[in-house]
Amino acid sequence: MKKLRKVLWSVLGLLLLFLFAVFIFVNTLTPSYEGSKEINGLAEKVTVYFDPYGIPHIYANTEEDAYRSLGYVHAQDRLWQMELMRRIAKGELSEVFGKDLVDTDKFMLSLGIDEHTKKTVRQLDINSEMVRLAQAYLDGINQFLEEGPTPIEFYLTGIDKRPFTLEDVYNTVGYMAFTFAQAHKTDPLLTHIKDKLGPEYLKNLPINTNTATEIIKNYDRDKDSVSSQLSGIAYNALEKLPVPLFEGSNSWVLAPEKTKNGKVIFANDPHIGFAQPSVWYEAHLVTPTYEKYGYHLAGVPFPLLGHDRKIAYGLTMFQNDDLDFYYETNNPENPNQYKTESGWQDYKTITKTIRVKDEADIEFTYKVSRHGPVLNGIAKQIEDKTPVAMSWMYTKKETNEVLDGLFGMIKSKNITDFRAALPKIHAPGLNVMYGDAEGNVAWWATAQLYTMPDSVQTKFILDGTLGNAEPIGFIEFKDNPHAINPPWNYIYSANNQPDSVNGKLYPGYYLPENRAKRIVALLDNKEDWTLSDTQKMILDVTSSLNPQIINESLRFVGISNYSPEQLEMLDLLNSWEGDYPLNSVAATFFHRSVYYVLKNSFEDELGPEKFEQFLGTHLMKRHVATGTRFKTGIWWDDVRTKDKIETKEDIVARSLADAYKSLVRDFGPDYTKWTWDRVHTIEFEHPIGQVEALRSFFNVGPFPVEGSREVINNMSFPYDSTGFYRVTSGPSTRRVIDFSDIENSTSILPTGQSGNPLSKHYKDQVEQYVKGEFRKMMMNQQEIESVSKDVLVLEPKK
C-alpha cells in the first residue's frame, strides 16, 4: 500500500509539474501591455498607453517612431491575422490548411495581384515619406516576430514565421480590392440564364438600375456552357477563405445646419464578413506634428478609417463594375495563341507552385490573354474548352498608387488636401465619406471608371475576339459621382446606385434601396441631430420596403386554402411594421416565406447548384425588393408541372404554406414561439474554431442578435434550406464622431481589440456590441493617462 501511495504521489507530482509547465508556457504567449521593451531603430523613447479596451495610444516625438511602435503593438495582438491576410494573394493558404484550399489558392494566384505587386514595389521611391513610414511599421512587426512570443496558432498549424515586406502590404490591399467585386458572382450566372434558358428569362430580373429607385445624389457647387461552369469558381473559392470578405456599408455625414450643436456629425459602419479576430485594429498615434485615431487592416500601416481634431473620414463600398469576362478563341493550329481583331496573338504562360500541408507540392500553369488570366484549368469546375479570360481594373494600371492615396488621406489638413489624394485609389471602388471641423461634408466615388460601347452589356461574358467590346475611354476623377456641401445638408451612402456619370448611370452591382430609403427618410425629417440620436439611428432595425413586399404579395392570396392558425399568422404578417426586435414572430415568418418564394420561383429552372449561387448575389437582393411587383412573369411558372402554368398567386400561396410547415416542424405549432432570437444568431468564428474541440476556445458566441439583412443595423445572413439565419456579415465597427465634442466621440468593435485568445481584450467588447452599446474613442491625453492601467515604454535599442 505504501508503495502504491508513493507511485501515486510521484504521478501527481509529475502531473502538477506538467500543468505548471503548461501554465508557464501559455503565459509566455500572452501579449505584453506593460513594462519596457528595447526597439531597433527608435530615435527616442515612445510611451504606449493601453486604455481599458486595449487600444494603444502611442505618444512619440517623430512619425517614424510612432509607426515603428504601431507595427510592434499591432503584431503582438494580430500577428496570426497578418499572416493569413498576406498569404491570400500569394496562394499560400494550402500550406496552412491543407488540400481543401488548393482551388482557392489557384484562383487567387491567377488574379495576378502578386505579379502586380512585384511590379509596383520595384518602382517605389524608397526615400519617399510614405515608404519610410510604411517600412518603419514593418520593422516594428518584424522585431516582434523575432523577439515576441509566437501566437498559439503557429504551433497548432506548424508554420514558420518569416519577415514582413512591402509586398505583403500591397498584396493585402489587393485581396481587399477583389473581395469588393461582384461580377465574378453575377456575370457568369446571367450568361448561363441567357444562353441556357433564353433572353425572356432576363426580362424581370433587375440587371440594370431602375431610375425610380433611391439614388445617391451628386452635387458640386462648381458644377451549360462555360458560363455555367465558370459561375461556381469564385463562389467556391471565396467561400473557403479563412478571413472575412468586404461586403457593404452605411455612412452619413450631417452638416452643421442639421445638428443641434451646429457642428458636423459623422457616422460610418462598414459591413464586412464577421470573423474572429475583428477586421479592424484601433490605434491612436500622437506626435508634435501629427495625430490620427485610425482603424487598421492587419499588416497595412495607414488606416482606412480615421479622424483627428480637424477631419473625419470613412468608407462604404462603391460596388461599381470593374471586372469583365471575355470569351477567347484559340488558334486551332496552335493552342498557345488566341484570336484578336488584328490576328493571332500569343498567350502569356505562367507556372506557379503551391505548397500543400502534409502533401506534395502542386504545380499548375495558366494562360493570360490581353484581357487577363484564362480561368480554364484553374479550377476543376471548368471542363468546357472555350477559354474565358477575366479583366480586372485593379491589375490593369501600370503602377498601384492605392497606398499613396491612403497616405495622402491621413496627412490631409483640410478638404482640399483630402480630395487631392483620392484619384490615386483606382481600385477597389470606394465611396469615401468626409466631414470636418470647418463644417464641410463631402462624398466622392473613388475608382478608375471607364466607358464601354453603348451596345455592350457588361453583365454578360463578352466576345473577346473582335475588339468591339473593349473600354473606349477612361473617365476623369472630377466626373466621378460626388457631392460637396449639398443644399440638403447631408451626404450618405448605403451601397445603392449613385447618381449619373456624364449623363448615364454607371453600371455596377449595387444593393437594393432598402437602407438608402430608410436613411433618407430619417435624415430628411429632423434638423437637430445629436450624437445620441445618431447612435440610435445606426442601430435602427426597421425596413420600410419589407411591409410593401408583403402587401404586394398577400393581396394576391386567397384565404380559402388556409387553416385558422395560418390565417392568424398571415394577419400578424400583414400588420408587421418591418422591424426586427428579438421577440418578433413576423420577421421569422417573413424570411422563411421569402426563401420559399425564391426557391419555388428559381430552383426549377436553375437547378440546386445554380440556385444556391443565385442566393449569394446582389442580383437576388435586388430581386427581392422588386420581383413581387410583377404580377406575371416567366419565373413564376414551375417548369416541372407540365399540365399547368403557375401564376404569382400559386407560387406565393405555395411558399407561405411551405414556410408555415417548416416552422411547425422546427418549433412546434404555437407560432408565438417562432421568435427572431431563435433563428437569428451571430458567432464570431476563428479559422481554427472549425475544429469542434477548439471551438469554445477560439470562437466567440453564438448570441441572438437584433437586426437583419438590408436594414441600417445590417446583420446579414445567407438564405439556405435550414431556415436558420446565422449572421455572416454586418457592422465591422460603429463610429459616431461629433465635432462639437470630438474627445467624446464613440465607437465599438464586434469582439475585441486583440486577436490573441489569451489576451484579456480578445472578446471584452462583444456584450456591448450585441446590445448596441458604444464606448469612447479617447483623445484627451490627461484622461488617457488617468484610465490606462497598462503602460508600455519602448526605448531605443542600445
Q: What does this protein structure show overall?
A:
By secondary structure, the chain is an alpha+beta fold. The protein has a domain at 545-577 and 585-674. Helices cover 35% and strands 19% of the residues. The protein is built from 23 helices and 31 strands. The strands form eight sheets. An eleven-stranded mixed sheet has the order 1-31-2-3-6-7-8-9-17-18-22, covered by helices on one side. Strands 4, 5, 23, 27 and 28 form a five-stranded antiparallel sheet that branches. β11 and β12 form a beta hairpin. The longest helix has 30 residues, at 586-615. It is globular. The model is unreliable at 16-25 and 222-231 (pLDDT under 50).
Question: What's the helix and strand layout?
Answer:
Elements (H helix, E strand, L loop, with lengths): L1 H27 L6 E5 L6 E5 L5 E4 L3 H26 L5 H4 L4 H9 L2 H10 L6 H19 L4 H6 L8 H15 L2 H15 L28 H14 L6 E9 L10 E9 L7 E7 L2 E7 L8 E3 L3 E7 L5 E5 L2 E2 L2 E7 L2 E4 L1 E7 L7 E7 L19 E5 H4 L5 H10 L3 H7 L8 E7 L4 E6 L3 E2 L10 E2 L9 E2 L7 E3 L5 E4 L20 H11 L6 H8 L6 H10 L9 H11 L11 H30 L2 H9 L21 H20 L12 E5 L10 H4 L1 E5 L20 E3 L1 E3 L3 E4 L7 E2 L18 H6 L3 E2 L4 H7 L2 E7 L2
Parallel strand pairs: 1-31, 3-6, 10-20, 24-26
Antiparallel strand pairs: 2-3, 2-31, 4-5, 4-23, 5-27, 5-28, 6-7, 7-8, 8-9, 9-17, 10-16, 11-12, 12-13, 14-15, 17-18, 18-22, 19-21, 24-25, 29-30
Helix pairs in contact: 2-6, 2-8, 4-10, 5-8, 9-10, 9-18, 12-13, 18-19, 18-20
Cofactor: Ca(2+)
GO molecular function, one term: metal ion binding
Family: Belongs to the peptidase S45 family.
